[in-house]
Every structure is written in C-alpha cells, then in structure tokens.
Amino acid sequence: MPGQDGGVSPPRADLPAPRWLAHLLRTNPAPVPWSGAARAAVAFSVPIAVGYLLGAPAIGALVSAGVLPVVTGDVAGPYRYRATRLGGTVLAAIAGFGIGLVTGADPWLSHPTVVAVAAVSALISAGGNNASFAALQLFVFVTLGTGQAAAGTDIRVAMLCVVTGGLWGLLVALSGWPVHGTSPERKAVAQVYIELAAMHSAPDDATALTSRTQLTTAMNTAYDRLLTARSWLSGRDATYRRLLNLLSATTPAVEASVAMVNAGERAPREVIAHFTDLATAVLADMPLPEPPEPHARPGVGDDLEPADSPAAALYHALTRIDTEQERRRRDRVPWRTKLGEWLDSLTSGPLTWFAAARLTLCVALAELARLIVPLDNSYWITLTVGLVLKPDFGSVFGRAVLRGVGTVVGVGIGAAILGFGADEHGVVLALLVALMGAGVAIGKVRNYGILSAFVTPLIILQMDLTIGGDWGVVVARLADTVAGCVIVLVFGYLLWPGSMRPRVGGRLADVADTVARYVEVSLGPPGEDRMERSRCRRRAYRGLSDLRTAFQQLVVEPSQAGRQAAAWWPAIVALEQVTDAATAVVVTISHGGERPAESDVRLVTAALGELASAVRQARDPGDVELPDTDQLTGVTDQLAAAFDAVRGPDPSRPRFRFRRR
Fold first, then answer.
1. Distance, first Cα to last Cα, the chain
2. Which end of the chain has fewer CB atoms within 10 angstroms, the N or the C?
3. What is the pLDDT of residue 231?
4. Residue 104 contacts residue 145 (beta carbons within 8 Å)
C-alpha cells in the first residue's frame, strides 16, 4: 500500500535519514505564489527605501514591521473575504502593539500582561481560522511592543508607524480588487478541470492516485472559495452563482473520472483536451466549449461504451456541465451565531483549555527567563514560544525543530547583512528586504523552516536595528530562539501530559463513520436527494483530505504518535480507495446499473462501523461479514485492506465471512 499514497508516504526503511526527519524537511508541493511574493517584496521594501530617502531609516523599518501581519496572514480567496481577514488581523496587531508599548516600560506590568494575552489568544483561536490568526498577531505584536518600549522608543511615533505599515500592506494586498475581482475563484474552478486532465493523463496507477488526491484538494478549495464568496458578496453575486453552478454541475464528471481511474481506465485524448478547454474558458470568462461525442470502443467496430460503464458516464456527465442550474442563495451567518458557536467550542470539551494552559505555562516560563537570564532585550524568547506553540498550527516538536534550524540560517543571513554593512546603504538594504519579504511569502506555503529562515533577519532589521542594534543583536537572537525552543520542547512537549500519545486514531475513526454515511446514502435505497448525496461525498473526501493533513503534522514526531501515524498510513490509503470504489458503484447506478441489495449495503456500513469502533477503542477489529457480489468487489477488497492495516495480517484466523446472494 505505501507508494500508492497520493503524495505522502512514509520513507523507506533503507533511507539514511530517520522517518520523522525526512518528513520534517520535506517541502509542501504547493505552487510557488509568485504574485504573493511580488506583493510582499514591494510591501516590505518600499517603507525601507522611503525611510532612507527621508533620512529616517528607523521610521521606515517600523512602518515595514507593520506590514508583517498582512503578508503572513494573506490567503487566496475572494477579495472581500481577504479584506475582512486581513483587516481583523491588522487591527489585532495594532491593538497588541499598543498594549505592549504601554506596559513594556514596567517589567512588573509587562510580564503578567504578556502571559494574560497569551492565554486569551489561545482561547480566541477556537473561533476559527481567521480568529486564530488574528489572535496570533495580537500575541506577537504585544511581545514586539514590549521590546520597543523597553528600549525607550517613542510610543506615539511607534504606533503611527505600525498603523501606517498595516494600511500600506492592506493597500498592496488588495490592489488588484478593481481589476481582478473574481480572479481567485475562476482560478480555483479552472484548477478542477486541470486536475481532471492530469488524472486522465497519468502514465501509471500510482501517479493517477496522486492526481486524484490533488483533484480532491482542488474541489475542496473551489467550494471553500465560492461558498465563502457568496456568504460575503451581494453586488457580484450573479458571477459567483454561475461559477458555483458550474462547479456543482462538474461533480458527475468528477465521480465518473474517479470511477474510471479506480478501474484502471483513462479517458481518450479528446476528453482530456475538453477539460483543458473548459479551464481556459473559465479563466477567460468565455462560453464553454461543446463536449466531445462518445468514443467508440477499440476493436468492437462502431459499438459505443456500455451505458453503465464509467466511460459512458463520463461522456454523459460532460453534456451536463453548464451554469444554468440554479442553487439556493446561501444566507450570511449572523455574528451572534458565530459568537455562540465559539462559546460552545469553549464549553464542549477540554482540548481548547489544555492548549491554552500549555501556551500560558510556556509563555510564563519564557517571561521568567527574561527576568532571570542576562540576555539583551530578550523578548524573542517569548516570541519563539508563541510562534512554535500556537494551538492549531500542527506538530509542536516539528515546529520547534524547524524554528531552530530556520533561525540559525536566518541569523547567518542577518550576520552577513551587518558584516558587509548593507544596513548603511539604503538601496542595498531595500533590495535585501524585498528578497526576504518574497521568501516569507513563499516559505509560509512551502515549509515552516524556510519561513523562519527569512522572517528572522527581516524582523531583526525591522525591530532591532531601529533601536540601535548591531551585529551582537544577531547572536542574542540566536540565543533567545534556542532558549524558547528548549522551553517548548521540555515543558510543552516532553513533560506535557498526552503530548506524545497517538492522536490520529480519533480522526481516522470519524472519517470511517463519514465514509459509512456516504455509502449508506449513495448505495442504499433511493429516497435521498441528489444534493444530499453530493454533500455526503464532499464530507467524505474532505475528511480524508483533513486526515492526510493530520498525518503530515504527526509523522514528523519521533514519539509513539509519529510511529502510529506512519503505521496507520495504509489504512488511510485503503479508506480513500473504499470511497473511490463506492463512487464507481454510484456512477454505474446513476447510468442504469442495478442498485446493490439493502442487506449488502448494511454489511458494508457495519464493517466500516466496526473499523471505526476498533480504532477508537484501540483494539483489533472483530470478524465481520461482507457481501460476495461482483458489483461490490472493489469496495470489499479495499475494506479488507483497511482491516489488515489496522490489525495487521494474521493468516492463522479467518478475517471475513462472505455472504452470497
């Protein structure tokens, strides 16, 4: 099973690097965000250049620092959504910086304030992705503000600089709104067709499975952007409605394509070309091309594909791709409802409070270290703890290691800048800041270590050199980062209860239940509407995609959690292929094929339920009965693989009983 993983598989045992290290150093294969890198380069470097031209480099550096929350928080998506996300992030950063400036001059006031803000930011993080990132910037800029205040920076000037930088960053980030208002959504929908073409063009099954995973990601991204856009937009709602209709109408083609790939088939060239033509038409906002005619079967004269074959289903699905099918307008969620959901998340379980307690403890220890250890302006100890221990940002161990490695590289860059005197030459420094800004934008989507390597010298220039820092600042930052990482690894990871226990099991079980629901709705008795089947399918594939993300976060740990994540990877792959096999049966049913017997569907869902229960209870799954029919052979074969992955093959006892009809 490893190797047919769709992009992420545990390294082979014969590789020289340990499993966790190989995964830790692996970069995310996401496309390089060139436009985002260009915007970041401009946003960071222009204030530096203007500051030197006006003879006030320190002012320019502080304005450049105000851009940081915009660049690190920017995401692809509708412009109004981005404006809301980034606006909230900038406001949080400004508020945090102000609190830090006001309290930073008095250590007995600033240290408790930073600890309290850390606890509040961890609780705010439960409110969703946007709230989480705003909370992080609140904490980061409180810490930076205390550092500036301790160095005697004028409070009013510093606040004005950060506010100006935040507004400048927003202007640069959203500058394309009037011209490319719907461009991100069009790209997201077009990417679905590009991934469909890539999946059918794959030269072998392993590559096709990888493409199928990328197709799932593209579908999730497109739905996220369009549904988010429709919840925020009104004036251009018709445009987004057409794109959402188009994406919804593409679902049958996606299902038929997955069924073909699962059966080892590929679409003919004219279908692949049609997918690329669809992508071009969507990007250019042009009329959609006419679909190709059904392809005759090779070696069977003029006979077309059987009506219930995946190929025939694909051709039929292509004729249904249009923008005319209306969808009900999605209502905007009131802020009171969002607030209620956040409060429910705080009272529904202990996980959020445990994360807040861990962050608060480590920040308190970092602030204590600032008081005890004679390090110059050592606010970076606390800053490192907060960035590494953010509750929803993945593996604590992995982020601590990458932060340390990235900072060492960043310190080298900072030392080189100071050693060659680049900080004394405005043009050279502006160019270097532009390069580092572009590196931050690229690093945030490719690898946290890359991000740390570029953001470290950038913040050194923005914050430390504004208060008269020299090359010794660089060495101090290295010592601060190492101290922060040690605090996190010891008190937030090694000694924190439960941090090294396996945490993938619950998610794997939940996804198995979601797949069971999809099988029940899609293969069970007719009655569920088509939209419900589509929603169940999206939930199943999204759950599998999120499970992959959880695996990537945990497999970088050398603990039992990382070892179990690697051991369960074949079960994740098998569960994906169970879903693909069920989709293939759905396609045959929708084009005239016989629907499986209710009793057979119940056997499959019961087997998935037993798999989920066994994972939750940390036991071997019991023997189950599976249907013995040709129609469900693909589903039962992959279910058997999933059971083997969870309990390990045991030839000494029977695994399944098959019921014939």
1. 30
2. C
3. 46
4. yes
